[in-house]
Structures are given as C-alpha cells and as structure tokens.
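Supplementary material to the annual report.
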Amino acid sequence: MAEKERFDFCTECRKETEYTLQKRNIVKTIKDVEYTFSITVALCNECGEEVSLPGLIDKNIQEVDEQYRAYEGIVSVGDIEKLMKIYKIGKAPLSLALGFGEVTITRYLSGQIPSKEYSDIMKMALSSPTFMKEKLQENKEKIASAAYNKAMDAAVQLETLFSVSDKMLRVIAYVFEKLEEVTPLMLQKLLYFIQGESYVLNGKPMFCENCQAWIHGPVYPEVYYMFSDFKYNPIEDARFAIFKGAEDELTKEEQKVVDLVVNTFGEYGGKMLERITHEETPWKFARKGYADNIPSHETITMESIENYYTEKNKEYDFTAEDGLKQYIRDILQ
Ligand SMILES: [Zn+2]
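Predicted assembly:
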C-alpha cells in the first residue's frame, strides 16, 4: 500500500504541515485504579507539536474503552451483539432472559460499561449454550413465548452442534486463531496431522475422537457436521464466538503440537493436504477393498496413526518444522 500523504493545519506553525501518527501512553484513573492506555496522536513534522485531527478523538475514546474492557475482562459491545446473533434473540428479551432489567442490554450496546458481575453472566452465555438454556428457563415467565422458543431452539441446536470433546474444541479454536482462512476440508486434515504429531511429541493422542477414511481423506464426523454448512468456503460464523478463549486451556506441549502442524501443513490448501493423506498408510490401509469413489466409514485406528507418525519421525524428525517441511516436499513429489 502506498504511503498516504498526511497534511493538516498546525496551530503552532500556522500553516498546513505534514504530520505523523504515533502511539502514546496515557495514565488515567478510573474508580481509584490507575490504568495505562495507548492512544494515537498526530505530531507535526516541522514543530513536533500535536495536531488535532477530526475523528481522532472518537477513535481514541473507542480504543481506551476497548483497552479498559480488556484490562477488566469486561465483555465488548461486539460480543454482546454476537450473543444476540447466536441465540437469535433481541435486546429486551435477552436482557430479561439473563435476569437484567429490560433496557440494560440496550444501554450496554450504546456504550455503557457493564459491571463485572453482569459481564461474567454475558460471557458465560456466550461460551456455554447449556448456561443460556438454564437462564432462559429461569426467566421464561418474563419473556414472550415466541422469543423464548426461538432462543431456546437456537441454544439446543448449538449444544448438539458442539458435541465434541473439550480438547477438540480447544484445538479447533487454536487453529482458527492461528490461521486466517480455514475451510472444512483443510481443518479435517489439520486435525488428523495434529493427532499424528501429538503421538510424536507427547506420546499420546491429542483428542479422543476417531477419524474415518472417507473418499477425500481422514474425516472426524462430529467436526464434519459442525461445519458442513460452509462447504468449500472458509469457516466464519457468529456461532463460533462460543470458541473464544477456549484455546487458553491447552498446555504448552499441546500448543506446540498445533504450532508445528499449522506452520507446516497449514501452508497448504485443503486439496493439497488431501493429497498428502492419500499417500499415507493410515488412510490407505483403512480404505483397503474400497474403490476410489466408494464412500466408507471405516475408522482410521489411533494405532495406525501412532505407528505411521512414529516411524516417519525417525526418518525426518517431526519435532522440528524443517523435518515436517521436508516430509511434505518428499510426499508431494
Ligand atoms: Zn507545526
């Protein structure tokens, strides 16, 4: 992108001068607690004084608001909007369902900062459909029945949708965090490589789910149904707000497994990853007796994944990115 020319009127120099945008820390006391916030200032290139730009104040107010919420672990306006979206519920009924006053959510949406207690309730609702169901039931009498039913249906759907192990959820969340665009096909293959890499690094599987030898390579069926709506497109949906923060619960060793896979296999698209799995013994073995175009639900056993990756590790050293990259190059040749 070309450098944008930035000029504005400097009140010191009394003329239009070029300015530079810089970050500056400010200290602010809120409710007797001191906070350091980073804001953006425009400095005149000639005299070094601050130039006041239209729009900069609003931008800084918003930045400070976001940083304050982050410090205090307070839910953001965007998260509250997600909450309404994933549970298909309006401001007023959501407020009542969570046990707040009818206009509380409306006030939050226009910028009022929630208390920690209310913020935690909203975060729980965002990360747990089961909690949302309980809240809805608790406050059923206060909400119109149409709104109640719609939100309840959405919560039940989400609950069944996310019926994979916690470990699987956390791994998926971490993959999403690390890779900008992940299609369902790509995700399936990465999960399978992660399982193999986990045997190499940690001597045990990452998650308890088994994958099957489908036509297009290894597939974790539960994960397949979670994301099948996206077909060949990158996965992106308000529902996945529910994953937020889940990756924090992976251990350092587990994160390393995902890092290694994402930084190597993750550089390829779904079709290339599929090609790699088609060259590997676990999938080929489970597909024995099936012609290429015949669907199968044969399990790719954990043992076959363990054996294959442990063997290949001896040859390539899968504990380092270089080893994995060499393996990928060789197999794609
Ligand atoms: Zn100046």
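The beta strands are 7-10, 15-30, 33-44, 50-51, 211-214, 217-219, 299-300.
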